[in-house]
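Table S5 (text form). Sequence records supplied for joint modeling of the two-component complex.
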Amino acid sequence: DAKTTQPPSMDCAEGRAANLPCNHSTISGNEYVYWYRQIHSQGPQYIIHGLKNNETNEMASLIITEDRKSSTLILPHATLRDTAVYYCIVRVAYSGNQFYFGTGTSLTVIP
Amino acid sequence: SAVISQKPSRDICQRGTSLTIQCQVDSQVTMMFWYRQQPGQSLTLIATANQGSEATYESGFVIDKFPISRPNLTFSTLTVSNMSPEDSSIYLCSVEREWGSGYTFGSGTRLTVV
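The corresponding structure-token record, covering 225 residues in total, follows.
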């Protein structure tokens, strides 16, 4: 079962940073936080993941609170192509464990 | 990340019939996962397919309805049997080629049962 809660929807102005929150208050010490997004009619796309340190890649940054009970995905300069449903997932740290998707946040980037 | 080819991309089927969906990966993977996404909903895991053993099904999904084959480390099929309109969904396969690399998903099969 999904162990995360996210707001159902958010808007962001094009060119501004999009900050997507996720609560995972029951996260275990060996669980990672993963972010995926799904653009309409496509398969989910991996964005980023982390354990406890903040992470950054070419797509986004992931900020995890010190107590690890919440995190924020940051898209630094949102574009219209970033309009999608964003899923925050926690998963235990051994290979092959399944991903359980929650309801996600529908992000709309507004021109 | 792995490249997944899934087919068919879409189909319209008569109720009572069966459809087999194929998932081909460009490299060997231990586990493959099948998901269902009903209209307007999130993804729900159907089962985990391991090569050389029976698939492991999630609660609410049974082998008779969703038989899975995993003949080798690069291929799997999911069959949706005795279909009804409630089976109209997008079906997706996914793999994780190596730990921590994240899942890669196929583009999905959009099934409509009439």
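Note: The CA atoms of residues 46 and 101 of chain A lie 13 Å apart.
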